[in-house]
């Protein structure tokens, strides 16, 4: 019997911690998706700066990962950040209008499936955004 008390005593703090992590509201998820979409668009525009890259990455958790199996697999935050800076410095971000327009956001429990139109090609892209607290922890792309 005394072991049950010890077990519950050890597990109780973890149970209260799990309850303190609240789900984001539908409105909060939609607002964050729009802000991230705007930041992605700004980063890819001609004349963008390191501050634009930093503004985008401020939305990502420290353990953020980007997954796009068609284009190479999984990229951790640090790798993606360095690639973004390299692309910026090499002059590869030269769009004159935003790349993506959001068509639909389907929010779920700390996640959202998002349909976006690539403005230039008209292609529809499906992307899954996952959240931890108020940061994006994972983006998974489902398009070619």
TrEMBL record:
It comes from the Bacteria. The keyword Signal applies. Keywords: Signal. Residues 1-18 form the signal peptide. This is SnoaL-like protein.
């Amino acid at each position: 019997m005394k072991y049950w008390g010890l077990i519950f005593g050890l597990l109780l703090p973890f149970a209260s911690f799990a309850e303190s992590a609240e789900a984001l509201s539908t409105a909060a998820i939609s607002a964050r998706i729009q802000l991230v979409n705007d930041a992605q668009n700004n980063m890819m525009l001609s004349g963008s700066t390191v501050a634009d890259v930093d503004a985008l990455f401020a939305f990502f958790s420290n353990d953020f990962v980007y997954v796009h199996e068609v284009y190479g697999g999984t990229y951790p935050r640090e790798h993606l950040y360095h690639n973004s800076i390299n692309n910026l410095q090499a002059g590869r971000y030269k769009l004159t209008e935003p790349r993506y327009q959001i068509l639909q956001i389907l929010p779920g429990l700390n996640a959202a499936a998002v349909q976006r139109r690539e403005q230039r090609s008209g292609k529809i892209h499906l992307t899954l955004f996952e959240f931890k607290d108020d940061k994006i922890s994972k983006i998974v792309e489902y398009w070619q």
